[in-house]
Amino acid sequence: MTSKVYVALRVRATPARAFAVFTAEIGDWWRPQGLFQTTPRAPGRLAFEPAGDGGRLIETLANGKVFEIGSVLAWEPPSRLVFSWRQAAFPPDLHTEVEVCFEAVGEETRVSVEHRGFERVPAENAARHGFPDQALLARLAEFWQAQIRAVGAKVLGG
Fold first, then answer.
1. Most buried in the list 23, 52, 132, 141, measured by CB within 10 Å?
2. What are the two backbone dihedrals, phi and then psi, of residue 108, each rounded to the nearest 5 degrees?
3. Closest C-alpha among 107, 111, 110, 131 to residue 121
4. End-to-end alpha-carbon separation of the chain, Å?
5. What is the C-alpha to C-alpha distance for residues 103 and 57, in angstroms, rounded to an integer?
6. Class of domain 4-157
7. CB 36, CB 143: distance < 8 Å
8. What pLDDT digit, counting tens, does each position of 101-149 carry?
9. CA–centroid distance for 59 within its chain
């Protein structure tokens, strides 16, 4: 069984602009959330470094320490981005996968996120917060909807 979520929202931008905001400006719009904490400490600033294939998604903490959330698996501007995802409570060898697509719809862009692989996270792992699969995935969908809304707000705010 595959344990994944899929969410999609429209933002008022071209796919190229939405892709650029999502990747190059992630440190400006990203909204940390305790249930899906990426580092074991207070949230830092996210960035894709270096941008492009072979890059990684990192979080730099206030003390300068860098935590690698994942690596870029596909970088296809302006339409698609795939990266691995590791939360603070995951065992070192466990990653899930996030695919983000940017599709023109009239004068807007549909930004869709599919986050897959939670079936690999053991039921007793702290990252599940004791939630059964369905409740965990509902919270994860809410998390990604909030992130896409933040991208939309960043696009409008410049």
1. 23
2. -120, 175
3. 131
4. 41
5. 22
6. alpha beta
7. yes
8. 999 999 999 999 999 998 888 777 777 777 888 888 898 899 999 999 9
9. 12
